[in-house]
Amino acid sequence: MGVTCVCQVPVAEGKSVQQTVDMLHRKLEQLGAVKQGNFCVDCETYHPVGNTSGQPPKFLYVMHNSETPLSCLALFEGGPCLTADGNFDVLMVKLKSHFQNSKGHKVESRGARYQYCDFLVKVGTVTVSSSARGISVEVEYCPCVVPGDCWNLMKEFMQSFLGPSVPELPSVFAAKPEGLYAPVDCSDTMTQYLELFSKLRKQQVVSGSSVR
Amino acid sequence: MSGGPAVRVSIESSCEKQVQEVSLDGMETYVPPLSMSQNLAKLAQRIDFGQGSDSEEEGAEGEPREQEWGKQEPEEDEATVKFQPSLWPWDSVRNNLRSALTEMCVLYDVLSVVKEKKYMALDPVSQDTTAGKTPPVFQLISKRKSLATAAQVLLKGAEKLSKSVAENQENRRQRDFNSELLRLRSQWKLRKVGDKILGDLSYRSAGSLFPHHGTFEVIKNTDIDLDKKIPEDYCPLNVQIPSDLEGSAYIKVSIQKQAPDIGDLGTVNLFRRQPKAKAGTQAWHVKLEAAQNVLLCKEIFAQLSREAVQIKSQIPHIVVKNQIISQPFPGLQLSISLCHSTAGDKKNQRTSPEKPKPDDHLYVLEHNLHQLMREFHKQTLSSVVMPHPASAPFGHKRLRLAGPMAYDKAEIAALQQGEGLLEKIIKQAKHIFLRSRTARTIDSLASRIEDPQIQAHWSNINDVYESSVKVLITSQGYEQICKSIQLQLNIGVEQIRVVHRDGRVITLSHQEQELQDFLLSQMSQHQVHAVQQLAKVMGWHVLSFSNHVGLGSVESIGNASAITVASPNGEYAISVRNGPESGCKVLVQFPRNQCKDLPKSDVIQDNKWNHLRGPYKEVHWSKMEGRNFVYKMELLMAALTPCP
């Protein structure tokens, strides 16, 4: 597992989400990337029950990634991150009295997985409670684990199919001191997905009101 | 026995003798003990003989008594002795004597009274006559009764004796059974169910997942006559094994060239001799081991057939009755069959002895199958190794960690990748076949072609999937100078990789022809290399050398190679072309001045042009003297080199 960058791609003017995704697929295929099945990242939100103190509730996010099919990640926003196996979902059911599943807050990103030499590109449609909200693009450069060493290369690669909407160095890496990126688990990737999802969830209200 | 310091306690006998005096230096002088007679005299002095014998009062006696009463002699007159009773040891004697005296006195008085006949008269006492006489009937009855009692006692004794003898016998048998059972218990798993003793011969505790229960029953062998002599091989313990595990079984693995008729399938019935029982092993042990072997063979076969059905291969594996047929290479079939013979079958076989077939059984593969099965057992056993987190799923530890360690797809796939028994054994069979065929190819080439020679050095240490052989191509008598061709053949599962001495790698497929062609082309190249080496030794100059000549007739195998060498003074040149198929062609170029039949050219009139090379002439190579190519070449070179 190498350095991963997750970013949001704005929907092109006058096009639907699906059309924009198709366009991205076409661009990638023109580059020479090979499609390798699908991927799926999902996120469920739990809110704590019985919050006695006056603090704002701290949500718990349980995420799954098809890239690590046997694992399950639990994250607090900006807080600790836990990697566990699939039984964690069962455990959350048992913890009903402490954490309640917020129905309708399920965010998912599904799409195709492309391989282009050393790069893995995943173009996904982000859906919040089964309505498409945006497009996520995950780019992974497999051979390297130090973000600083390969960021420029990744940026250049992303420019080739994303055009001008290339993101900056993800804050996960920027916050870390110089050194090795932790490749053991996919927590950095999932943190980026979580950021993206929260952004899209908040956006939903704005865009929903403006569109309709 | 306390651990304290030892305190010495001295014990000495109490002083029995009287101390006469203690001298100033502490020496004690004792009074010498009295002799018997002195003692008697001393005691006698104390007796008051004046005391009356008839006076009964003892109160008057106030004399102090002595300690040594035991020494008192009993011959003293009882009447004269008057002592205080109860403490005197001779008291009872004295009392008896006294009462006897009283009786005597009374008798004397009675007799004297009777004598007077005034007061008393003696009459005979009348006797009861009826008491003494008993009727004969009673006598008979009592006699019979006593005899019966005596007989009863005797009978009871006899019964007891015979019972104890029988018990002894039974005990011995029982003891033997128990000791045998103990021995059985030390080697096999046993448990008691109801009044039966059941044993377990399955490999379940070793990690087997085969559903066969594999239970045997321990029986006490009682069908033997105690009176007769016990046969030598008698064993009080017998085991009853399930009927489907009886007999002997083995798995036959063989590779055959052509496919037999489909009608022949599934009827493999070859038997081996029963292994002789080792001395000192019990009959039950042999029986159980055989049954366990049958069980393992069945498990292996069941596993193989399950895999054969599940695995999708290009040519599907065929499972018919007790045989699995797979096709590792085209035109070749691997058959794995379970041969199970029971006692009944053996008789049948004996009556119709078949013509002994050549034994194509691959023992190595059979052994490997057993080994693989046990490895598989071990794997299942180690996957449930404790301690194990209560929440985690059962399985391999690394797989269990895959979740928390967030392994990605590739890593998980690498963990789960496990080959089945059948795939492994097919791979091994392929390798074994490829190896033996390679050996055969090399050997047949070596025996067919004498010049150059092929040597094969097989390495002893092999993997189940890979072995290697080193092939040297040399010419007889010139081994030291012609060492150019050294090939390392790495024989794998499907292909042979040839590593040249210079590091080139050529991959050959499993086809026999490929290897043969390759070796032939190498041999042909060897000859040209040999000429090159020889030229160096002989001082000739190499003018040109080519392993793959692009001119001349096209060879069906590989390419022809060629070399041209010039003699040390440059007058002659030898050109050799050697092809794997066309054979060798040797041409000698003569100097121009030696050729008479050359047409005189107008241009090259000058004498210096005589040194130009002339035409080539072919050498009739087969007519050359010499035992092999290099030797012939040496002779030719020597002939063309002018004497100094």
From TrEMBL, chain A:
InterPro entries, per the entry: Mediator_Med20 (IPR013921)
GO molecular function terms listed in the Swiss-Prot or TrEMBL record: transcription coactivator activity
Swiss-Prot/TrEMBL keywords: Activator, Nucleus, Transcription, Transcription regulation
Cellular component GO terms, alphabetical: mediator complex
Residue ranges crossing the lipid bilayer per the database entry: none
Location in or out of the cell: Nucleus
Any one Gene Ontology BP term: regulation of transcription by RNA polymerase II
Top-level taxon of origin: Eukaryota
Family under the similarity heading: Belongs to the Mediator complex subunit 20 family.
Function text: Component of the Mediator complex, a coactivator involved in the regulated transcription of nearly all RNA polymerase II-dependent genes. Mediator functions as a bridge to convey information from gene-specific regulatory proteins to the basal RNA polymerase II transcription machinery. Mediator is recruited to promoters by direct interactions with regulatory proteins and serves as a scaffold for the assembly of a functional preinitiation complex with RNA polymerase II and the general transcription factors.
Subunit field text: Component of the Mediator complex.
Record protein name field: Mediator of RNA polymerase II transcription subunit 20
The species this protein was found in: Megalops atlanticus (Tarpon)
Taxonomic classification: Eukaryota, Metazoa, Chordata, Craniata, Vertebrata
Gene: MED20
Automatic annotation (TrEMBL), chain B:
Domain of life: Eukaryota
Subcellular location per the Swiss-Prot or TrEMBL entry: Nucleus
Gene name linked to the record: MED17
Keyword terms: Activator, Nucleus, Transcription, Transcription regulation
Annotated segments matching region Disordered: 45-81
Basic and acidic residues: bias regions: 62-73
Protein name: Mediator of RNA polymerase II transcription subunit 17
Subunit-level organization: Component of the Mediator complex.
